[in-house]
Amino acid sequence: MKNLWDRFGLYVIGLALAILVCTAGYLGWRTWSRAQAEKVSARYDQLIADVKSKDDKQASAALGDFAANASGGYAVLARFEEAAALIRAGDRQGAVAAYHAIAAADDAPDVLKGLAHVKAAMAEVDTASYEDVQKELQGQTDTSKPWNNVARELIGLSAYKAGKYGEADSNFQAIIDDPAASAGLRDRAHVMKALIAPLLPPPAEASAVPAPDASKQPSKSPEAAVQPGKSE
Predict the structure, then answer these.
(1) Which of 30, 85, 172, 195 has a CB 3.0–4.6 Å from the CB of 60, allowing a cystine?
(2) How far apart are CA 222 and CA 214, in angstroms?
(3) pTM strictly above 0.85
(4) pLDDT one-digit tens code per residue, 103-112
């Protein structure tokens, strides 16, 4: 045992010290990280209290500045608040840009990125083209996405506005057929389908009297073709 200690004792001591240093470093980082998070939380709470006394333009500027200098969840929350203030101020393009900043953020969770795309589409559905709304909501109608039926509703509304009644009808029907869709969404989808129904082309109707099948008609002999009372 003494020989082993003589040979490896220094390595064991070094390893123990390294573990202690790493543990102390991790604990120190965790304490610092918690303190920083508490500071950011306090700053965000103070910001929300402050912007209540400002007009929407001033509020959006303050929220945007906070988001640009923060990271993580509080930056995302500030961007959502900024976009809401911009919409109230009548700056829908600015709001869409704020939502796009959320969707492009590396540290934003996917569920909030999807929500940002949906809210951007909400902000521009009255003015954007059907193709632009489709592009904004690309992938969001997948059944695995949490906002899929809201995305379908927005695409359906945009299609209706563009005169694409077939596309609109199919999107609203998909909402009605989804048992996971909320009652409010299904009710609105039924209303829209009722509005769209008179605008859809009538279904092709089959002929009331089908044409006779020539292959099943009896063939006439040359004698039958000669009229009675006439000789050849």
Answers:
(1) 85
(2) 18
(3) no
(4) 999 989 999 9
Whether residue 172 contacts residue 154, with contact meaning beta carbons closer than 8 Å, is answered with no
- Give which of 123, 193, 183 is closest to 154, Cα–Cα: 123
Structural domain boundaries in the chain: 15-124, 129-199
pLDDT of residue 38: 72
Whole-number Å distance between alpha carbons of 142 and 225: 68
Angle of the 72-88 helix axis to the 56-68 helix axis, nearest 10:
160
**Residue at token pair 């909030």:** 112
Q: How far apart are CA 102 and CA 115, in angstroms?
A: 9
Instruction: Fill in the amino acid letter for 132.
Output: D
Listing DSSP states for the chain in one string gives -HHHHHHHHHHHHHHHHHHHHHHHHHHHHHHHHHHHHHHHHHHHHHHHHHHTTS-HHHHHHHHHHHHHT--HHHHHHHHHHHHHHHHHTT-HHHHHHHHHHHHH-TTS-HHHHHHHHHHHHHHHTTTS-HHHHHHHTTTTTSTTSTTHHHHHHHHHHHHHHTT-HHHHHHHHHHHHH-TTS-HHHHHHHHHHHHHHGGGSPPPPPPPSSPPP-GGGSPPPPTTTTSPTT---
